[in-house]
Specification:
The structure is a single chain. Helix content is 48%, strand content 13%. It starts with 18 loop residues before the first helix and ends with a strand. Helix 15 links the parallel strand 5 and strand 6. Strands 5, 6, 7, 8, 9, 10, 11 and 12 form an 8-stranded mixed sheet that branches. Strands 2-3-1-4 form a 4-stranded antiparallel sheet. The protein is an alpha/beta fold and 472 residues long. The protein binds S-adenosylmethionine. S-adenosylmethionine binds next to helix 15.
């Protein structure tokens, strides 16, 4: 064959390194491979990128884009998996996980952001060339070109079963939640299609950063001076940072006089502190205190009333975080590391007890984008005895006439009402207090007597609270 018949070879071009996409890919790999939490892996990766590239090359906008790409890809992973599955010629389990991560990141840029199609494809192919090699970059290019043939709505029409045929599967694919989670949330929420759709979409939104001005230590006025800060919706101590920002750079937060705390958590602590009580109101217990958000608010409220707070946490390192959160509390308190199911305190010795028990966290899916894919229905069985043991211990710890708040950041009925109902049977000399008046001004609190907050109705995590009084 003569030389003239040969096609001229394209000169080799080095792949373009885009620090934002490389960082997002590394974060997804860490979440996939090491079961890491996105909110924990991202900050050090962002710091490293800023140091390596310099603040002019990797600025705040790059950090925001990288964060959005990671969170968005993880939240919508179920939907993107279904789209990618429709574009490859083999089962997804046979696609190498790093390749799948690049594809998911590309699918998110194409279907979940305003990045133009050609830019989303070419940025993904360049990323693939850097992290996977030229051969696999061709595969990425071919798959993403198919993904780009429809927008998200177009894909959903193809891949989601019709609502009338299978409502839960439809919602699971369209709103990117595992089916069992859709089912559990719907059981707890009740109602028809509109409510559950609003809830699932709220789970896919990035929550605002909310601060708490710990009473007696900071004021909301002080926090409202921050950029784009507005008052909370329900808690008198809440301030919302509508444009995010860096709470760690705020003086009051650095000093521990204020903290980052979802308004739902603030409301739960406030409700327990304000539950009506006859007789002394001097000794308060937080039996599951780590990392200390509610304990710090309870400590400040207790100080205003001259009450003492014991903050107890099983894990010693988390008890250390509680100590840090309470440091500087103006009233008396103590932090201990103790197993709440085998407590060192005497029965009947507290006037108010909060048990904010370990749970599946299905009420905080907005914050932990990977959690919904990691949780399994079997996890509920693991938590059930611990949740019952801790509530039993709380009911023993409180004096006759005192109140217990049983709280979870999960709305799953197996972790909320089922636990409370079981323990009320075992402790006949107790009564459920109507908790709704303890949430003044908060609408849509249901039929009571317990309270379930919801992201789509209240803009908070889906915190649950039952208030129980010991009557004998
Ligand atoms: C939902 S978190 C509490 C959150 C905390 N109230 C706050 O607002 O920051 C549950 C805590 O209970 C702790 N825990 C788990 N088992 C426990 C036990 N047997 N006794 C006491 N604490 C326990 C966990 O380590 C975890 O820190």
């Amino acid at each position: 064959m003569s030389d003239t018949s040969r096609r001229p070879r394209k000169p080799y071009r080095r792949p373009q390194k885009d620090p934002v996409r490389i960082l997002a890919f590394e974060a997804l790999r860490a979440v996939d491979e090491r079961d890491a939490y996105a909110n924990l892996v991202l900050p050090p990766l962002l710091r490293k990128a800023r140091e390596k590239e310099g603040p002019d090359t990797f600025d705040g906008r790059d950090a925001a884009l990288a964060t959005e790409l990671v969170y968005g890809t993880l939240r919508r992973q179920g939907t993107y998996d279904a789209v990618i599955a429709a574009c490859v010629d083999r089962p997804l389990k046979d696609v190498d996980p790093p390749v799948l991560d690049v594809l998911s990141l590309g699918a998110h840029q194409l279907l979940g952001t305003r990045i133009p199609t050609h830019a989303a494809v070419s940025a993904s192919v360049e990323l693939a060339r850097v992290v996977l090699g030229d051969g696999r970059a061709k595969f990425v290019n071919a798959v993403l070109r198919k993904v780009a043939q429809h927008d998200l709505d177009g894909w959903l029409e193809q891949i989601a079963p019709p609502y009338d045929e299978d409502p839960e599967d439809h919602l699971a694919v369209v709103h990117s939640h595992p089916r069992w989670v859709v089912s559990a949330l719907w059981d707890s929420l009740g109602g028809g299609r509109a409510g559950i759709e609003d809830l699932l979409e709220a789970d896919n939104e990035r929550p605002e950063v909310t601060l708490v001005a710990r009473p007696g230590r900071a004021t909301t006025e002080e926090l409202l001076r921050e950029e784009a800060a507005v008052a909370g919706r329900w808690s008198p101590y809440a301030v919302r940072l509508t444009e995010g920002g860096e709470p760690g750079a705020i003086d009051a937060v650095r000093d521990g006089r204020a903290g980052v705390q979802d308004e739902g958590s603030q409301l739960v602590a406030l409700a327990l502190a304000n539950a009506p009580l006859e007789g002394p109101d001097e000794k308060w217990l937080d039996g599951c205190a780590g990392p200390g958000g509610k304990a710090a608010l309870l400590g400040a409220l207790a100080a205003e009333r001259g009450a003492f707070l014991l903050a107890s946490e099983k894990q010693p390192h988390r008890a250390g975080l509680v100590a840090r959160a309470l440091d500087g509390n103006p009233g008396p308190y103590q932090v201990i590391a103790a197993d709440g199911t085998r407590p060192p305190w005497r029965p009947g010795s507290f006037d108010r007890v909060l048990m904010d028990v370990p749970c599946t966290g299905l009420g905080a899916l907005r914050r932990r984008p990977e959690a919904r894919w990691r949780r399994r229905p079997e996890d509920l069985e693991g938590f059930a005895p611990l949740q019952r043991g801790l509530l039993r211990s709380a009911l023993e710890a409180v004096r006759v006439g005192g109140v217990v708040g049983y709280a979870t950041c999960s709305p799953h009925l197996a972790e909320t009402r089922a636990v409370v109902a079981d323990l009320l049977k075992q402790f006949p000399q107790t009564e459920l207090v109507d908790a709704r008046p303890l949430f003044p001004g908060v609408p849509a609190l249901g039929d009571g007597p317990d309270v379930q907050l919801w992201p789509h109705l209240h803009g908070t995590d889906a915190m649950y609270l039952a208030v129980i009084r010991r009557t004998g």
